[in-house]
Write a structure and sequence with these properties.
This protein has helices at 3-16, 20-34, 36-39, 47-63, 68-85, 89-107, 113-141. By secondary structure, the chain is mainly alpha-helical. The radius of gyration is 15 Å and the shape is globular. The longest helix is centred in the last third of the chain and has 29 residues, at 113-141. It starts with a helix and ends with a helix. Helix 2 crosses helix 4 and helix 2 crosses helix 6 (89-107). It contains seven helices and no strands.
């Protein structure tokens, strides 16, 4: 990830923070629209709490952009836990689409091709780490 991409992510995220709950509502609404199977993963979930967790997690990631390697163990743990919730590879793809769609809607003119590419790069890295850790833990358990 380039310093320019990191700066774009931080700048755009600063615009999302004031509308965090609305953005999280948009995100989950879009996720369930494009991937109805994802809704079952949240049937016993307190969604206001879940929306808050999502935004807190994204904030931690954005704050840690300068040293993403330090976040790897946390991201790996998140992937292992998500495997236990029933999350699969298709869900990661849906989440990525819902995230980018939400950012596009929330950021308006700030959502440039460069910002989209930066967020896509970040999400791709994080989801790859999560999926790899989930797969490794599943193979160890088998």
């Amino acid at each position: 990830m380039t310093p320019y991409q990191e700066r774009l992510i931080k700048e755009t995220w600063n615009q999302v923070v004031p509308i965090a709950d609305t953005a999280a509502e948009l995100f989950y609404g879009r996720l369930f629209e494009i991937d109805p199977t994802a809704r079952a993963l949240f049937k016993a979930t307190n969604m206001p709490e879940q929306r808050q967790k999502l935004m807190q997690t994204l904030s931690v990631v954005v704050q840690g952009l300068d040293n993403l390697d330090a976040l790897i163990p946390t991201v790996e743990d998140l992937g292992r836990r998500h495997r236990g919730y029933g999350v699969n590879a298709a869900h990661y793809e849906s989440v990525g689409k819902a995230l980018l769609w939400t950012l596009e809607r929330g950021l308006g003119e700030m959502w440039t091709p460069a910002a989209a590419a930066a967020w896509d790069e970040l999400y791709g890295r994080l989801s790859a780490i999560m999926q790899r850790a989930a797969d490794e833990s599943q193979h160890k358990a088998a």
